[in-house]
């Protein structure tokens, strides 16, 4: 009876000590070209087992614990000392890096956590319609969102850069930085017929986006 009790106690402890994934990250991650992509994996009760990252499309083992097993130096593991984190970092991510990656622990049977990565080009997007109509003497309000932290966003009217110091006056620009990128808002008060035309939002290192403005006379 005593031996059975000890055995049950031992197996209970063994069950508690099994490695498992602490769910801290979404299964689908979006990244932007030339920025770092981080795939998170937190393993509890790792013990003396190994944590590996595998690229699913070619079954290539990229890393094991803190060691990298690929000639592509963009891949590395982020493992701060005394933590359970074994995050895969891909520097200067490219569209070819898109796909499924698995964080694996060599238990018996093996456990794995699959994360899908999608890398897209940095680009601007007009918020709202890409063709708007406003009445003469009203305010033209344009907004452009960029999926990266752009250091600068320029606006063009036709082929000319919008001049905030022009004699026209009434032109203002507001830039907002968020966790996911940059939003630029252009406002032109007292719209005139000369304000009609194509407006283009041009972030640095990103694909631009355009909106067409029609200023209408009459009621």
From TrEMBL:
GO terms for cellular component: neuron projection membrane. This is Dpr7. Signal peptide: none annotated. InterPro entries: Ig-like_dom (IPR007110), Ig-like_dom_sf (IPR036179), Ig-like_fold (IPR013783), Ig_sub (IPR003599), Ig_sub2 (IPR003598), Ig_V-set (IPR013106), Immunoglobulin_dom (IPR013151), Zig-8 (IPR037448). PROSITE patterns: IG_LIKE. Coiled coil: none annotated. One of its GO terms (biological process) is synapse organization. Gene3D superfamilies: Immunoglobulins. SMART domains: IG (SM00409), IGc2 (SM00408). Residues 19-106, 109-212 form the Ig-like domain. Pfam families: ig, V-set.
